[in-house]
Design a protein that fits this description.
This protein has 417 residues and is of the alpha/beta class. Strands 5-4-3-6-7 form a five-stranded mixed beta sheet, sandwiched between helices. The N terminus and C terminus are likely disordered.
């Protein structure tokens, strides 16, 4: 397989000169530029969290002086990162003007690699997906993924004006780790999937684009998307479960995603399932869309709708109804196991399926909890995820935004001031 660097179809950044967006990396020593960068990120992050804020509200929440806030806001507005809202008139004094993020100020691209399909999304500064491209396959190979990335990235870039392409923050990639270990489960030969071992996907994509490239485990990326753009901000701690071809998950502790030493904390899937007279199994062998795919095939049904976008799975009954009940039992087992280690406020369940299926699955999981021995367990709230099947791609696209413009901890999810 050749991974030679192809000619880039994208405009290269101009050499020299001041970038249009002044946000820089605020890490390192506290010189004036870094302090300014941190404060700019602080302001943007607070506005992102609250939707819109006035200068007075920002000064109160940050402890910055009114003059400093005015300077920062003026600079961010000049860089088109902020836009003015309608003035709010009080009893006395000048009306205050709320400021909000400019949705089209920054663009980001997310690439999700799944075991049956891949997605590319173009996301704006507010986290709204503006364009999506999906490709299905029997199983992923490095070359097939790169071919999809080449064509899809070109299509996304072609749909943007030149000044919009200049404002792409980067490409985030969400991918299951150790893809080579799942050849049998996806129906591939070991040799084909072995090509993933030692293959640097981020480096290969970076050779094709002029933007920074980031890579994260797919379930961890989905967990981050739920925290930032879904309902996760309501809870200080929660366990996140995402059901794709296999089940995966993530941990949020103290309002922040906890990736763990290798980036796979909260994976859930490897939890052992031990039953008398049977070889050891894992929960991913039971609570996954792979189980539904196999059940449909055994019933003589076409399982391909599972991997195509659509909101109607009613044609998959009655197998779908069986799968929901079966999966709910194993989700309940995973929840009890997780809560044995961390006293989670909530468990959030999402996956690559329509919202109606998610609603039924969450309801069935709540019922299944009652069938287990819950002594010593504080049962958490079990909630539906709000981001949906795009969670992995949206989480991937969020990585460049936070790396360049926002703060992803303390400021975003904790009250300030």
């Amino acid at each position: 397989m050749s991974t030679a660097e192809p000619p880039s179809p994208f405009p290269q950044p101009p050499a020299g000169g001041r970038p249009r967006a002044r946000i820089v990396d605020p890490s390192g020593g506290a010189n004036q530029t870094r302090v300014r960068a941190y404060n700019e990120r602080l302001v943007l992050s607070l506005i992102r969290r609250h939707g819109s804020l006035t200068k007075a509200e920002i000064a109160r929440r940050t402890g910055l002086s009114a003059q400093t806030v005015t300077v920062i806001m003026r600079a961010l507005e000049e860089d088109r990162l902020l836009v003015r809202g309608e003035p709010r008139r009080g009893r006395v004094g000048q009306p205050s003007v709320p400021m909000s993020l400019n949705a089209e100020a920054v663009w980001s691209i997310g690439l999700k690699i799944g075991r049956r399909s891949a997605d590319l999304v173009l996301m704006d500064f507010l986290g709204t997906v503006r364009h999506r491209i999906t490709r299905t396959y029997l199983y992923p190979t490095p070359q097939a993924v790169l071919d999809f990335a080449d064509s899809g990235l070109s299509e996304l870039a072609a749909g943007l004006a030149a000044d919009q392409r200049d404002r792409i923050a980067g490409v985030g990639i969400a991918v299951p780790f150790e893809l080579w270990n799942w050849a049998e489960q996806v129906g591939a030969s070991a040799g084909e999937m072995e090509a993933w071992r030692g293959f640097d996907l981020a480096e290969a994509v970076a050779a094709r684009v002029p933007w920074p490239v980031f890579l994260q485990n797919d379930a961890t990326a989905a967990c981050g998307a739920e925290l930032v753009f879904g309902g996760g901000a309501e809870f200080a701690d929660f366990l996140y479960l995402f059901i794709g071809f296999f089940i995966g998950g993530g941990l949020v502790i103290d309002h922040a995603v906890f990736p763990g030493r290798t980036g796979t904390a909260g994976a859930i899937g490897p939890i052992p399932v031990l039953r008398p007279g049977r070889p050891p199994e894992q929960i991913l062998d039971h609570a996954s869309l792979a189980v539904l795919e196999n059940a449909l095939a055994e019933a003589g049904r076409d399982p391909s709708p599972l991997w195509r976008r659509g909101d109607d799975w009613s044609g998959l009954e009655p197998t779908l109804g069986w799968w929901i009940g079966y999966t709910a039992h194993w989700l309940a087992v995973a929840i009890v196991g997780g809560c044995s280690f961390v006293d989670f406020q909530a468990v959030i369940v999402d996956g690559g399926f329509p919202a109606g299926v998610r609603q039924r699955l969450v309801a069935a999981t709540r019922r299944a909890m009652a069938d287990l021995d819950l002594q010593g367990i504080q049962v958490p709230q079990i909630r539906e995820g709000r981001v949906g099947s795009d969670a992995r791609a949206i989480g991937a696209a969020a990585q460049p935004l936070f790396a360049r413009y926002l703060l992803d901890r303390d400021v975003l999810f904790k009250a300030v001031g």
